[in-house]
Amino acid sequence: MGKDRREMAKRKQKRLEKQHRYRKQKREGARRTGWAGEVPGAEAPLEGCWTYVQDDGPPAVAVIARKMGAGRVGFACFLVDRWGVGIKDAFGFVNVTRDDFAAWFDSFRSKGLDLKPADLTYAQQLIWGGLEYGRANGFRPPREFRRWAEIVGRLPEGTEIPPDMFGKDGKPLIVGDWPDLVKRMERPCSLEELMARHACIIGTPLEDLEADGEEGEEGKLRSSLAAKLEELQREDPLPPGTPGTMERVVFCKATLVHEDYDYVSKAVRAEFDCSIDERDDEEPYMRLSWLRDYPPGHWNELAAQLGGRQNLGSIEIDDRLLTIQTRGKSWMQIALGLVHRACGDRVALLDLEFTHPEDLLRGR
């Protein structure tokens, strides 16, 4: 028994060391890369530039690659919503072989995005123009944009962005699911406020629900969230013979919006028994593990180890969003209660998601 515990402790230590290396890599800016390293700047020689622009829709894609020496390249890919939101995604890879780059390129094209060679200035207009257009409409770029923007380079002096490059018939048209749009806003607002400023096409994951007497898109969205809260309260049946003290595994994710990172991050850490897994010293971002001591007689063998603690879920906080993930509905109910006790009306529930393990196995 003692030998088994020592082996378990060794495996746990290796796992913790692996997690530490992964978090260190992310802190150094290697997030969403296959190879860690410094992103080549605009002074690096250009390897190539490619773009895709949908004629009858908002999406556009720009890819810029630069040489890194020894036959390797670094490249970044930017997804741009030309009609309203601006920069929607930014990611890339550094220090990759040309063969790896070509393989990635082929996989991207296989998804139906016909990337064609383009002038660097045109790609820069798409990227920097998308950034400015999105901000003018009240939307911010994703956190990753700052890292990968280094590969782009500034527009040549005197170069302007064509007025017809952005907007639908010369005006903003905001397209997307409401929870996703709120996550991208510089300052969250109500749907009515957004629709008063811009033309919108809003979809929701449960857009077929009735509005329960409330008219318009705002009522549909409130009805959708109410249905998800009801789902959170609903118990899922357990297989026959399962002890009554256990509950079914359901991966739950709650997204809340806030406007005060300092207050919310301090309040959450004071209310939850948690440890800091990651903290960004340059941007408002923190990831926490929600923990507790194992209850007496718990089935997990780690419960008998000195200092063993149970992980109940994870919490991520950035300058606008608070995201909680748990592996059970009851823990999500408790987490939401703790958050609202700690933060009160400084936070508002934006969305709830539920994923069952069998759905993951089916590839849904």
Helix content: 25-40%
Mean pLDDT: 81
**Secondary structure tally: strands:** 13
Specify the structural class: alpha+beta
Query: The biggest beta sheet, please?
Result: 6 strands, antiparallel
Strand % is: 25-35%
| Inertia-based shape | globular
End-to-end C-alpha gap:
41 Å
Strand neighbour order, sheet with most strands? 9-10-11-12-8-13
Show unreliable segments: 27-36, 204-215
Output the radius of gyration.
24 Å
Put simply, the count of helices is 10
Task: Tell me the series of helices and strands, N- to C-terminal.
Answer: HEEEEHEHHEHHEHEHEEEEHEH
Account of the 3D structure:
- The protein has 364 residues and is an alpha+beta fold.
- It is 34% helix and 28% strand.
- Among the domains are: 46-165, no CATH class; 246-295 and 302-364, 2-Layer Sandwich (Double Stranded RNA Binding Domain).
- The protein is built from 10 helices and 13 strands.
- Strand 3 and strand 4 form a beta hairpin.
- Helix 8 (261-271) crosses helix 9 (329-343).
- The longest helix is centred in the first third of the chain and has 29 residues, at 2-30.
- It is globular and about 70 Å long.
- Mean pLDDT is 81; it is low at 27-36 and 204-215.
